[in-house]
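Complex record, two chains
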Amino acid sequence: MGWLRRRFIRRLYFPESSDKSEIRDVAVAIADLDRTHCGIFYRTAAGDLFLLHLCWHTILRKHSADEIGDRGFVWVVPRFLPEQAVQIAELCELIWRCRPDIPYALRHSELSMFSLLDGNFNLGSGSHGLTCATFVLAVCRSVGVSLLDLADWRERGTDVPFQEYVVSELAKSPGHREHAAVVASEIGCLRYRPEEVAGACMFDFYPIGFRAAERSGIALLAEIDEYYSCTGRRKS
Amino acid sequence: MKMHDFFDEALAATETIQKAIVQERLSIRDFEITNSSLAATDDRVPEKSRVRACEGLAAFWGQYPRVSRLDDTTYGNDHPVLQFLERVYQFQAADRSRQGIGFVFDQMNAWQCSGHFANCDLALSMADVNRLDANLVLSFLTITHAASGKLPGSTTYYARAKKRLEQLRGKSYAQDLLSGLA
């Protein structure tokens, strides 16, 4: 039961050991089964818990906590101010009601946030869409919370294979080829990994710089890996 | 009454109010009289013009919290913005601010998506932050954050919200809440 080491990783929760009652308003969920993926757990005014996440190009999904069941998601409860957490939860509900078409793209702008202007995401200059991770960043940014210190971010050669994979997957769909060409021009840009977004939530203050988020992300993935091993789950 | 006459009257009324405030000769009754006269002309000008003229007045009044409540007499109780705000205050009074946030988000978003952007600005100008808790005060800022550059009323709302949040939560906490929404 090595995953019980969660005690040493603050605010990290696993399905087997939690009834999710610790999620008062919001948490950042992360899974590492196929590829790392993240989203936002949020609780409605009625007390129901949902996961909102950007799955892929223009595919936004909302699942109830029951639907999510045990799909490998663990979650980190961030230390947002209570008022900010409530705003994020309500904003998630509004975003779902608006069902914006959110393109999937690699380059992220700090100015990307949900906009009242058209019930969609204002992507900021130079950005053509969001990833699952930058979707979480953009939602938080919409209520004034900057989780990561984007100005401190660095390019990593190790991010290129993932970025190429995204472009190749987009290009497979005939309807997305034009968009894939646009995204291809972003290969090599800064990448904010899901584990770094979730890992940042383990700190007390935001925004979190590159090194701290990177280390936190690595530690988080190690915990998830151990949890999967202990529960007989295999990564594909 | 022609459109430009209505605007002239609205402008004249604004200047009168401004003078009264500057010279500290302001009384609530003066405003009620001015507002009633404006309200009486309302149904004789096209809806769009009325909203635009009233918008200018509301933006102006927004700078002066002590007269902002008088907007009720300008628009009449059936104005959608007033009805909306009244509902928000009801959520607050019933200690259901969480549901109130959802209501604020939905209504402000609906107005925008249906082209009634001026209503969002009016709501910001007219909202009485002293009747709202921190969550609801913040909800108006959150939902208009990305569009604040296009909402003249957002500047005065931010100032009033800051003051209210400082009152409710203290200066440092209010600063933390607002730092990303400026």
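Note: Residues 3-22 of chain B form the longest helix (20 residues).
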